[in-house]
Known about the structure:
Elements (H helix, E strand, L loop, with lengths): L7 E6 L7 H11 L3 E6 L9 H7 L16 H8 L2 E7 L1 H9 L5 H8 L4 E5 L3 H4 L2 H12 L3 E2 L3 E4 L5 E5 L3 H16 L10 E6 L4 E2 L5 E2 L6 H12 L3 E6 L10 E4 L3 H10 L3 E6 L6 E3 L18 E3 L3 H6 L4 E10 L3 H12 L3 E6 L11 E8 L4 E8 H18 L1
Parallel strand pairs: 1-2, 1-3, 3-4, 4-5, 8-11, 8-13, 11-12, 13-16, 16-17
Antiparallel strand pairs: 6-7, 9-10, 14-15, 17-18, 18-19
Helix pairs in contact: 3-5, 4-7, 9-13
Amino acid sequence: MSPFAGRRIVLAVSGGIAAYKAVEVCRRLVDAGAHVVPVLTEAARRFVGEITFSALASERARLSLFEDDDPIPHVTLGRQADLILVCPATARVIGSYAAGLSEDLLGATLIATRAPVVVCPAMHTEMWEHPAVQDNVRLLDERGVTVVAPEEGRLAGGDVGAGRLAAPESILAAAAEALAAGAQASTRDMVGLRVLVTAGGTREPIDPVRFVGNRSSGKQGYAVAIEAAARGAKVTLVATVRRPLPESIELVLVETAEEMRAATVDRLPADVVVMAAAVADYRPTAPALDKIKKTGEARTISLEPTPDILAELGCGGEVGTLVGFAAETSDVLANAEAKLRAKGADLIVVNDVSAPSAGFDHDTNEVVLLAATGDRTTVPLTSKRDVARAVLDHVATHRAAH
Length: 402
């Protein structure tokens, strides 16, 4: 089921050249089942017409505080919204929001809501990098606003640089996560905790071009990191892939198993460590310094074990609660139970990656939680964010008992 199905979203469009891209975001939200209410600033109407949004959205576009019989349209919009998505957000809108100004319908609605807010900045590089804009962005982030950082690319006037509106896929992913976090806003059981999460599959070089890897997308690890942050934790994510992420989470990008081990160990101690990454078990013994040319002859690659990060953490004493993951294709529970005993973890999350719609690169997963205490919990096929909640619910129970 779409995370937007049945959700009421105020799509706020401000006056930048990227305003035309909000049309596509609007269409995708409606296609995903959302009830979209467009709000356009006066400046936005110089770039896109309200008729376009009125035709594509679920309701007509709203333009002013004084355009209809509702005496408090900003309060009505703010109270009814499940999410407010500002796309694009100009430097003026960001500054006004940070300062608490209510000079138009958009500004007043932002102040009058308790719904999650996602802001998608778009502007020229010089404006995006200005200290005042960066200070305002940091302030919004500290207040719990999700900021979808702009990308580098072609800008207005033929310029190229940072400030280009994020891709629709990134914006929708951030909106979905904000909705999920908003639904769980009452769960703040990890405030003050340091949580370290790993995600993605490592790449072990064969030569400068090729590597030994796996199919992990990193989606489950990212879901755990985002859920932990939503519960109030200070989160560090060590990952091999880059995906949309709240700015409050520290992201450390690595590539190999050794790099992941070093980045993880360097960030201890931690109250909770969740090893969701698919770390390669073996790596080439002697990677070639130059690209190996195709000769038509058979080749043999010698492999050696990679460092066992989970086992190292399990006996190190610097981790409060340790969670490991096991991706299996046969004897699933037996293999996971053996891993639980061998690694010194408090919990193993195991799934059959050969099962339909579960495991690598899917948005859904089906897992069994095996605890060192002997408890066993089955999580049926659901979203990876829901799996993350189940894992962290168990972590909270474990910490309360110890």
